[in-house]
Amino acid sequence: MASTETITFESHPGWTLQARFFRDVTNAEEVGNLIVAGKLPVKTSVINAKLVPDVLPLYAAGDKTLRAHKSQKGLTTRTLGSELVFNLSGSKHIREALTKFGVKSKDCTSVILAWFEKEGEMEEEGGDVSGLVKGSAGAMADLASAADIAEVRSHYNITDEELSTSSLTDCVVFRIGAKDFLDKKSGK
Amino acid sequence: MTEEEQVVGLVPKCKLVCQGAEGRVFETRYFKRRAILKQRFDKMYRHPILNKKLTRQRLGMEVKGMMKARKLGIRTPTVLLVDTETNSIIMDRVEGITVKDWLRKGKYTEEELGRVLSAIGTQVAAMHDGSLVHGDLTTSNIIVREPSLELTFIDFGLSFNTVAQNGPEDKGVDLYVMERAFLNAHADKPGLFDKALEAYSQKTNQWKSTFNRYSEVRMRGRKRSMVG
Q1: Where, per UniProt, does this protein localize (chain A) (predicted)?
Q2: Given CA atoms A89, A109, A6, A144 in this order, what sign does their dihedral have?
Q3: Band of pLDDT at residue A1, cut at 50, 70 and 90
Q4: Does A11 contact B74 at a Cβ distance shorter than 8 Å?
Q5: CB < 8 Å to B10, chain A
Q6: Which of B10, B73, B79 faces A177 most closely, judged by CB atoms?
Q7: Which of B95, B84, B93 minimizes the C-alpha distance to B31?
Q8: Which residues of chain B neighbour A59 with C-beta distances below 8 Å?
């Protein structure tokens, strides 16, 4: 049985994000297709673990997602699940974010399965779809070893200078937390 | 009310650390880390629409300034979250003390003092060469970590990206603000700023134009004369 990490949010009492990590996944593309077809629960995300070096980015993106969920403006994407993936990317391009951080590609072999849960809310559908993922379960602590550092750096545009003063995780979290202001296309 | 814990920008357990003219700074926790929450508050005397625009703009200035500084190899706090709904920035808490306190405590050797001052000069020069102007270079806005003496620059709320034609003026003013800050906060220790400026001059590649303008700014003060 895979070990599930429960992330609780100080700012959103009652909400948790459950996360599981799988490596050597053989059917990522299939699961990705299910997501795209809208066949998976709306609170569930399937994330390409290659671009996530730590749990903290998940936490920051999750916090952002829940804040958007509670705000008047609402979510940018359609579901909580996709919003989490979108927020992880640190960019404003929804499609680009979903293709990059989603799993709908042949060469995606490590996957994070994450789903939001709200205390006291009976779910008509459980967010946990671990049964669908064909791979071996790992611990969330293994994220760092599964991440492709070169790709993380090129996606988030992290320079040597910045990395000399700060950890990779911090560089990534900075971009997730501040994404509303960093993307040049954002305008006013 | 200083010791009271309150909920700020959805984050519980915030302890007020200090209050400025534009915002309040709280200490809190964010996902297993010690964090600082900086919230800008509404100015009641401003028109609500203008207020919203200005607040958002300044939030952006701060975050963008930090990002730019990081890309130039300067340590800044890591931003963990920016919330435009509550106008707050959550960033990790930097360990260490302000250069101001460090200088006042006076527990350093001559060699350490020299290292810190020249590091200040070098890093400000790196910022300026990357056309980033900090806008509020005081000794309380630089944190020094012991024993490594690494510097972290904080409070980019007034920072901006200068364009080529205003470069010397903006940088000159930035240096002048720094000189005044050194003079006012550390009047008992003269010559500190000169050491930092010397390191600056060695690092920067725009020394001539910046220095000329800086001398001009010194003569007239920070504000440009509007006469004529």
Answers
A1: Nucleus
A2: negative
A3: very low
A4: no
A5: 11-12, 67
A6: B79
A7: B93
A8: 31
The rounded mean pLDDT for chain B is: 88
Q: Which residues pair with A21 in a beta bridge?
A: A112, A138
Indicate the helix (H) or strand (E) that contains B51: helix B48-71
**A182 inside 8 A of chain B by CB:** yes
Query: What ipTM does the predicted assembly reach?
Result: 0.87
Please name which of A26, A4, A9 lies closest in space to residue A129, comparing C-alpha atoms. Answer: A4
Q: If you ran DSSP here, which 8-state letter would residue A3 be given?
A: P
CATH of domain A5-121+128-178: 3.30.2380.10
Return all residues near A143 (Cβ < 8 A) that are at least 6 apart: A21, A49, A52, A53, A54, A55, A112
B103 φ, ψ to 5°? Answer: -65, -40
| Contact between chains at B31 and A162 (C-beta distance less than 8 A) | no
Three-state SS for A133?
A: coil
A170·B92 Cβ contact <8 A: yes
Q: Is B136 a catalytic residue?
A: yes
pLDDT value at residue B228: 52
Q: Which among B63, B75, B85 has the least Cβ separation from residue A165?
A: B75
Cβ(B216)–Cβ(B170) below 8 Å = no
Whether residue A71 and residue B82 make contact (CB cut-off 8 A), yes or no, is no
**Residue B90: which pLDDT band, with cuts at 50, 70 and 90?**
very high
